[in-house]
Amino acid sequence: MTGEADVLVQVEGRTGRLVLNRPKALNALSHSMVLRIAQALTAWRDDPAVEAVVISGAGERGLCAGGDIRAIHADVRAGGTASADFWRDEYRLNALIARYPKPYVALMDGIVMGGGVGISAHGTVRVVTERSRVAMPETGIGFVPDVGGTYLLGRAPGELGTHLALTGVAVGAGDALLCGLADHFAPAERLGALVADLARRPVPDALAAHADRAPAGELAAHREWIDDCYAADTVEDIVARLLRSGVPAAKEAAQTLAAKSPTALKVTLAALRRARSLGPLERVLEQEYRVSCAALASPDLVEGIRAQVIDKDRSPRWSPADLAQVRDEDVARYFAPLGPGRELALSAPGSPR
């Protein structure tokens, strides 16, 4: 393959192949990788030799663990603009993938988190395996689900998406399918053959030859308490319902929430609820860009990354430290306009932009 080392790019038969090539970093996305992927997709969009695009990750551990949060930590501490610049191009890429005119096949093998969801779950063909672990774990670092995550999770059945967004828990293949984050299951051992078939056969034919029945998920058995508890209007009420339910798994969920950033939890709930009424993905990405940029001024983002990735003490000191101290105006600040020239303005079908 040719191209930059961190993204391998090649045309193989009928397909344009993209391989994220940072296996030691779980293929975490850098700004240059985002730009390289967008460049390739733009070139292939009108290339008659490329009938479909296939994206995968190098190594055995996963497609992509998300954005490079160490770089975000350094940028925030330095007061730079690199994170906002990265998100602007990343969210544009998410929109490009969602509207891509050719089949976009994402092999969601292994770890697929954060930005990894953004470059896969907006595709037209999303394949999970028995090794898949799909998550939007942002609340654990004082951040809020982005890359269209609030769009995707806001459309999951019932309140499953709210549960996943607030707790940040990872789900396997069966639950990814249930929540609308994936379409097909294929055993990991068949992925090589699937890629080879995609290069020589139409996408439906290749999928039919290799797709299989997914292992049973876990979330369906918990729908009753999840839908009841997470339908509450506030995070405080959600936690109270979880603790009152008498269901051990619900109590565990409440304990999980207690470890997350209180501010991030409240902003995430608001972002999800707003996303459900915003319409197309592009409008949600615009909202997420406001939220993400606002998070740069929050002490929780730097502290969350420090605790989870830099010092790895897993003991973040959130500010404010509890839900009751997070005011409505604190949440509203995340959704405030950024000002002239700073907004993310995306075109969507039927949009006058």
From TrEMBL:
It catalyses: 3-hydroxy-2-methylpropanoyl-CoA + H2O = 3-hydroxy-2-methylpropanoate + CoA + H(+). This is 3-hydroxyisobutyryl-CoA hydrolase. Residues 16-335 form the Enoyl-CoA hydratase/isomerase domain. It comes from Streptomyces cirratus. The keyword Plastid does not apply. InterPro entries: ClpP/crotonase-like_dom_sf (IPR029045), ECH_dom (IPR045004), HIBYL-CoA-H (IPR032259). The lineage of its organism: Bacteria, Bacillati, Actinomycetota, Actinomycetes, Kitasatosporales. Keywords: Hydrolase. Its EC number is 3.1.2.4. PANTHER family: 3-HYDROXYISOBUTYRYL-COA HYDROLASE, MITOCHONDRIAL, 3-HYDROXYISOBUTYRYL-COA HYDROLASE-RELATED. It is an enzyme of class 3 (hydrolase). SUPFAM superfamilies: ClpP/crotonase. GO terms for molecular function: hydrolase activity.
